[in-house]
């Protein structure tokens, strides 16, 4: 069988960054609650002239520069912070990226699971036509109400992945474990720009979905836990990955380490909980992109991955989840040498809490005509709304 999986991957994020110690202090909250309790140090904040389209295209651009566009026949854009009810965000991204018209483009949605849905659909397309490549973009702007418990878990980010036969980074294995349950833990109604969430219910729903997806994987003949070298989880905040690791430890009986922070006591086999959480700790929740930001972090901070099996748990509230596995390819370090994620994170411009609150309150997703102030310096910008349509510019 042809090996199919992720050939290359890149990450982009918002222009600004907020320190969670600043947010905590402004709220009279002990910073340790956010830094250790949630495992988050910062979150990205979008300026008014960027959105999921500009972030997604910015993530995809270096991939196309490195790999060319030959063979790309499909663009799958996963998001749960969509900017239109009808038109796929990927269509605007396709124009910004200069992709030809012979690329079918659709948007995929199921909360944070959408990125994995797009990846699995891409694998199906390549299985049918191995000479084709699929550009998968997962891009989100995670927004909760100001002063709500979800606020410190906001964030923004996009991951673009090129899916192909004979991938250079990660071959995705065919057996997966799935769990879908109808639960109202988190959703975003059509008339709201922020998510509605029952936070503690969502944590329980996530953990139960993990148990169920793992059991489904086991029942379908998936790899034993002892044959999985590293494990990545969807990270709404990095402490959630630690909770997930604790649950998987209980379900499997395998002593996998739950040490999340540098210096934490290592209480079992190291499966990369800390190395896979370094980017997410600084990005905040990037919804559909979060699991794949974790993958980028692991690949960039672990030199011993060649030939190793990674388990990946994807969770999207509502809820749909999947546990699947992949084998890291021999040349992954050469591919990742081109990655600039640390630079992208370091380049963000800090905002004060007052500036962040103003940006949060600025119009989002409105169809009222407007011209956005030019703030960003990236390759693409959201110029505003004219005749009720969103306008994007290439710099
Ligand atoms: P909260 O209720 O304000 O926080 O919000 P808490 O009181 O539960 O405290 C959080 C943790 O900090 C606790 O640790 C405290 O002990 C600890 P835990 O019991 O969880 O291990 N703590 C401290 N630690 C150190 N020093 C201190 C200190 N003080 C307290 N001084 C909540 C937490 C998660 C509910 C909130 O952030 C929230 O609503 N978040 C949004 C929802 C969310 O992220 N859910 C996660 C699962 S659902 C999911 O992943 C899907 C999602 O990505 C969306 C999608 O799929 O589209 C969200």
UniProtKB/TrEMBL annotation:
Record: active site: 80, 112, 234
SUPFAM superfamilies cross-referenced by the UniProt entry: Thiolase-like (SSF53901)
Location of the Hydroxymethylglutaryl-coenzyme A synthase N-terminal domain: 4-166
CDD domains named among the record's database cross-references: init_cond_enzymes (cd00827)
Transmembrane segments: none
Highest taxon of source: Bacteria
Domain Hydroxymethylglutaryl-coenzyme A synthase C-terminal: start-end pairs: 181-248, 280-358
GO molecular function: hydroxymethylglutaryl-CoA synthase activity
Coiled coil start-end: none
Gene Ontology biological process terms in this record: acetyl-CoA metabolic process
Swiss-Prot/TrEMBL keywords: Transferase
Binding residue positions for (3S)-3-hydroxy-3-methylglutaryl-CoA: 144, 243, 285
InterPro entries: HMG_CoA_synt_C_dom, HMG_CoA_synth_N, HMG_CoA_synthase_prok, Thiolase-like
Any Pfam family matching the protein: HMG_CoA_synt_N
Family annotation (NCBIfam families): HMG-CoA-S_prok
Family, as annotated: Belongs to the thiolase-like superfamily. HMG-CoA synthase family.
Name of this chain's protein: Hydroxymethylglutaryl-CoA synthase
Organism expressing this protein natively: Corynebacterium terpenotabidum Y-11
UniProt lineage: Bacteria, Bacillati, Actinomycetota, Actinomycetes, Mycobacteriales
């Amino acid at each position: 069988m042809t090996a199919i999986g992720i050939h290359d991957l890149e990450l982009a994020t918002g222009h600004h960054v907020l320190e969670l110690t600043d947010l905590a202090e402004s709220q009279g909250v002990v910073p340790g609650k956010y830094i250790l309790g949630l495992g988050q140090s910062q979150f990205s904040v979008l300026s008014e002239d960027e959105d999921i389209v500009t972030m997604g295209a910015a993530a995809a651009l270096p991939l196309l520069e490195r790999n060319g566009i030959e063979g790309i026949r499909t663009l799958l854009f996963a998001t749960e912070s969509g900017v239109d009810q009808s038109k796929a965000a990927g269509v605007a991204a396709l124009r910004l990226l200069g992709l030809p018209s012979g690329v079918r483009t659709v948007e995929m949605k199921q909360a944070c699971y959408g990125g994995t849905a797009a990846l699995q659909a891409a694998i199906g397309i390549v299985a049918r036509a191995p000479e084709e490549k699929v550009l998968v973009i997962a891009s989100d702007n995670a927004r909760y109400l100001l002063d709500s418990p979800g606020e410190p878990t906001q964030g923004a980010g996009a991951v673009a992945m090129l899916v192909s036969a004979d991938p250079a980074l990660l071959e995705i294995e065919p057996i997966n474990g799935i769990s879908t349950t109808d639960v109202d833990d988190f959703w975003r109604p059509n008339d709201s720009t922020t998510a509605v969430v029952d936070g503690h219910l969502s944590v329980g729903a996530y953990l139960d979905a993990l148990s169920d997806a793992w059991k489904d994987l086991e029942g379908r003949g998936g790899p034993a836990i002892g044959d999985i070298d590293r494990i990545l989880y969807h990270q709404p905040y990095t402490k959630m990955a630690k909770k997930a690791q604790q649950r998987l430890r209980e379900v499997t009986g395998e002593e996998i380490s739950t040490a999340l922070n540098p210096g934490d006591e290592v209480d079992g086999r190291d499966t990369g909980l800390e190395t896979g959480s370094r980017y997410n700790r600084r990005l905040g929740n990037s919804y559909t992109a979060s699991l794949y930001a974790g993958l980028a972090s692991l690949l960039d901070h672990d030199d011993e991955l060649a030939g190793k099996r990674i388990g990946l748990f994807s969770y999207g509230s509502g809820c749909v989840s999947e546990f699947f596995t992949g084998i890291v390819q021999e040349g992954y370090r050469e591919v990742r040498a081109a990655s600039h994620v640390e630079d992208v994170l370091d380049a963000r411009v800090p905002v004060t809490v007052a500036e962040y609150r103003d940006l949060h309150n600025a119009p989002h997703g409105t169809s009222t005509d407007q011209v956005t102030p030019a703030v960003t310096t990236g390759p693409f910008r959201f110029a505003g709304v004219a005749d009720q349509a969103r306008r994007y510019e290439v710099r």
